[in-house]
Amino acid sequence: MIYKNLVGSDWLGDEAAFENKNPSNPDDVIGLFTRGDGTTVDQAVNAASEAFYGWATTSPQVRADILDKAGSLILARKDEIGRLLAREEGKTLAEATGETARAGQLFKFFAGEALRMTGDAIASIRESVDVEVTREPLGVIGLITPWNFPIAIPAWKTAPALAFGNTVVLKCAEQTPASAHVMARILLEAGCPPGVFNLVMGPGSVIDPALVAHLDVAAISFTGSEVVGQQIADGCARHRKKLQMEMGGKNPMVVMEDADLDVAVPACINGAFYSTGQRCTASSRLIVNRDIHDAFVARMTEAMFALVLGDPLDAKTQIGPVVSESQLRGNLGYVDLARSEGADIVGGMQLERTGFFQSPTLFVGATNDMRSSREEIFGPCASVILADDFDHAVALANDTEFGLSSGICTASLKYAREFKRRSQAGMVMVNLPRAGVDYHVPFGGRKGSSFGSREQGRYAVEFYTSVKTAYTYAA
Q: Is residue 75 part of a domain?
């Protein structure tokens, strides 16, 4: 079967399809998926433009009901969709099922937000004048999503866009189209009118520029690499489009001398290695006080080698494969780089089995100025960096071009409070894994990690709407 692009109410595409393969077993072909091009983008944007007025002016109850039904359908099928997601992305079945449930929760949350659109009535400084401040949808929104969360991130962009009256063209990652395709079918089943949601699959090098340049696309929301993000930012600036971006991270987890290792080690194992380290919020720099360093490394090494790597569909598996052979080659290249920079490598081997498997890796004795400590790897690799004291640890944590998330493990309320205040990151965790966030609160970072307003929660309205101020004179 060939899975095609959704344009309006039609599934379009030809026989020039690409194979979507299971990274834990490349002989397992999940399906054939059509590649779109600039013409497909033009068709999808035209369909979204034609549908916009009717969707923007429909009752918010209608939008809420459709989103709520979509969320319910996703939740009802979370085991089936989770299994598909695990096959195409490589994360464990438990993580994939949890991600699918999160997508359902996001749709149901934003169903409520569709009914909670508010404005302001403000007293004018002039006699007999009323002032109203309202929010309106932008128009057609181009959504560009990554492969590492192939249903959650499309959901957390699509749900608010639709809730607030916009129409959507989603370009999903070419490595993981099946999850987005399922979401598209569910939206239609939930009653989404033709053209309100459109799906275009294919290479980002072709689809992304066409979306950014299209005159009828009002805004772009992008999650992906910093390199691609810069290209999209340049294009949006040229075409004067509203832009929201979530990009990379080199996230620190500080472990203080008073940390409870029974808390710190599981938090660091989860943050650094779960989802095979393929999370923008992963704990890729472990900044450890020298008084606890050796004990921490010993405990981390023991816990790391106890992790079960294998088939994501096996319930015993804790770590699955990386997403592709090219990603595996890149990860192993960073292992070699860290070794050449003087770090001691713990783990880091390619497993001799079918699929793209790498054992979790620590770069012990790393320093913050090494390339392996500064560049995002997006794999199961973490640098262990010595800190002399709390001030030194904070300085190391902030010494990065990124600013998505940070964390600290400590028993000190003083350290925790100071770290939350001084950390130059958009999200801070205390005694918790660096990855893992709630769906009803804002998500985003600072510096090179993010641009524009926050995603998720009530803050999503800032990006997906425009503010209008209206004056009325009544003599």
A: yes
